[in-house]
Please model this.
Amino acid sequence: MIIAVDGPAASGKGTIARALARHYGLPHLDTGLLYRAVALTVMRNELDPEKEADAVASCDFPDSLLDDPALRGDEAGKAASIVSAHPLVRAALLQRQRRFAQQPGGAVLDGRDIGTVIAPEADAKLFVKATPMIRARRRHEELKRGGSTVTYDRVLADIRARDARDSSRSAAPLVQAPDAMLLDTSFLSIEAAVQKAIALVDARIASNADVER
Ligand code: C5P
Model:
């Protein structure tokens, strides 16, 4: 069973994808980490994320980089949204994601284009969203807990800029797949959002089985 979870930054998609993977006993891939690893490689080699050739040259990073805590930082996230707009970067990371999705037994992947490009054949697709203000508040709290002094207004501006870049790029923009189920987490606790996600996936799997019968 393949479960695709897409949505904008800080919508809750990562938490939901991890919980779904645990619930259904499936392996999970946070595909944002791949773009963040490319971005971090670009930054560490003092290359330019806006230049497609510089970003492509950084796609061949070692697997060990995926455990680097620096990937989780806001700088890496911002640069990731720049490198991810280059079609050749997306092409370089495509097979790795497809292989993960198509492994025997299935998988849960979260990102921006899982239901549309990486695994259009997924058995269940969720599109997770929340208002920009609520996502900024969540991200701001998280950054403050990590010791950052960044302001809420700065975080909100970054979220809006990232949304605009992710949604307007021509290569695999952030859009809801026509067959994706919408989950708005704006006014849900984490536990409630996870329960809703499981209920939606269960319902989709049951209706897929009905169609096959
Ligand atoms: O999800 P996360 O915030 O870690 O992703 C970082 C950036 O990587 C996103 O802003 C987006 O531009 C890019 N990304 C993408 N496609 C994916 C996952 C992430 O373009 N499947």
The mean pLDDT is 95.
